[in-house]
Amino acid sequence: MMKNARLKEQIVVAFIYLILIITAIFVLYPIVWIIIGSLNPGDTLFSTKFIPDNLSLVHYKYMLTETDYTKWYLNTLKIATANMILSTFLVVTAAYAFSRFRFPGRRQGLMAMLVLQMFPGFMGMIAIYILLLQVGLLDNHWGLILVYAGGSIPFGAWLVKGYFDGLPRSLEEAAKIDGATHTQIFFKVMMPLSFPILTFIALTNFIGPWMDFIFARLVIRSNENKTLAIGLFEMVTGRGNTEFTNFAAGAVLVAVPVTILFLFLQKYIVEGVTAGANKG
């Protein structure tokens, strides 16, 4: 009986490892293909070899010196960074208010934010487009930043509220006894204790604009305001993928800052998302 149970356990473990290996192959294969494609000396997808005869950085040089890639990169970095700062501040302050204060409409506000998450963002794009047109923020980076920041509040506030609900109120009460105001408690007590969830929210709000294409394509019109997603898309549109290897080089450079952030902040990201989901 014990041998059968042990054999069964080994089979289950082997099956789990097999699934993980297959999943890793499916995830890593496109990434490896893009990296190898960016290092191939050819210009098209058909000339790309998984094991190239020789590696070349000519496509990276082309993207950085002969296109507006640097301008697209700086535009996207500006939008992503500004959105990260603004949206994180809005999300955290809203979550703190809903977690620690009791006021008329609190429950209705929470339910409204919960319901808003059920509708896809595509539904409001035309209305947002018209609104930005009326206020003069069409083809403007700040128009994108404000929409991104506002759209991040419902999901982010619910997640951070769950984290705040799990923090002991005795810390705030002790601070109040010492004469601290709500603002001082927020910045000097709550914020230092919330670093994991703040890291997760900040990184999420940075990645959103960094990878977004559809809404940026709707709002941005001029060449000087293009983001990375728009610029790279237009490189291969209508040309039969004749610049695939250049596109691959641009895609690899896009992934560099996000990968670095994930590697350095992985611990806090995991702590933040698990704590925010389970507490409260």
Question: Can you describe what's shown?
Answer:
The protein has 280 residues and is mostly helical. It is 75% helix and 0% strand. It contains 13 helices and no strands. Helix 2 (58-65) packs across helix 13 (244-278) and helix 3 crosses helix 12 (228-236). The longest helix is centred in the N-terminal third of the chain and has 38 residues, at 2-39.
Give a quick set of tags describing it:
280 residues, mainly alpha, globular, disordered C terminus
Please outline the helices and strands:
Blueprint: H1 2-39, H2 58-65, H3 69-100, H4 106-116, H5 125-135, H6 141-151, H7 153-165, H8 170-177, H9 182-193, H10 195-211, H11 214-219, H12 228-236, H13 244-278
Mean pLDDT: 83
Q: Compute the gyration radius: what is it?
A: 24 Å
Strand content: under 5%
- Helix/strand-derived category reads mainly alpha
User: Spans with pLDDT under 50 lasting ≥5 residues?
Assistant: 276-280
Number of DSSP helices?
13
Shape call: globular
Q: How many angstroms separate the termini?
A: 44 Å
What's the story with the biggest beta sheet? Answer: none
What's the SSE pattern?
HHHHHHHHHHHHH
Proportion of helical residues = over 70%
Topology, number of strands? 0
Short description:
The protein has 280 residues and is mainly alpha-helical. Helix content is 75%, strand content 0%.
